[in-house]
């Protein structure tokens, strides 16, 4: 069975995805800065690697077929952490994935990362970082999927999504649990290579929506 590395496994989406994979007895390597944040996870299929993404974390990719980059600097950090995590750490992860001949790389990006100039807000540095990381992945030669969620909510998973951006901005939302189910599907189906899509809460089953 293939092994999945989740970078940022203690974040909300990363941890939800980790749980989904472990529940299906899928081997997971969880890369976190503080392993105590995963103390509530107990599985023979889980390996925890404690490492700071600002340092060299290449060893964590050893033996992993699928890489999920779900790390983020967080909304309460400055532009420096956005640069170091959302851009530089993501870029390093892509380079490490090439060195380890990973079969697939999934990037959790963001709506708006396709054209950061179209959005004038405090989020622009974050979107620029995501845009550049996405471009690096596209040009890497790796098989990849770039997932760009809408605004995130804490609603329960409906497991129904849309990849078409709603005309009403207020409806351009998706629950974190739905994003996790999308990432789980990509990791286990291995069917979406070199594709980019936005995801929102919708009315289609996940497999059908991202096929």
Give the arrangement of secondary structure elements.
Layout lengths: L3 E4 L4 H12 L4 E5 L13 E5 L15 E4 L9 H21 L4 E5 L15 H15 L5 E6 L1 E3 L6 E3 L10 E3 H14 L5 E7 L2 E2 H5 L1
Parallel strand pairs: 1-2, 1-4, 2-3, 4-5, 5-6, 6-10, 7-9
Antiparallel strand pairs: 8-10, 8-11
Which labels suit this protein?
5 helices, alpha/beta, Rossmann fold, two-stranded parallel ribbon, nine-stranded mixed sheet, 22% strand
Description:
- The protein has 211 residues and is α/β, with parallel strands linked by helices.
- The protein has one domain (4-210): 3-Layer(aba) Sandwich (Rossmann fold).
- It is 32% helix and 22% strand.
- The protein is built from 5 helices and 11 strands; from the N terminus they run βαβββαβαββββαββα.
- Helix 1 links the parallel strand 1 (4-7) and strand 2.
- This is NAD(P)-binding domain-containing protein.
- Residues 8-189 form the NAD(P)-binding domain.
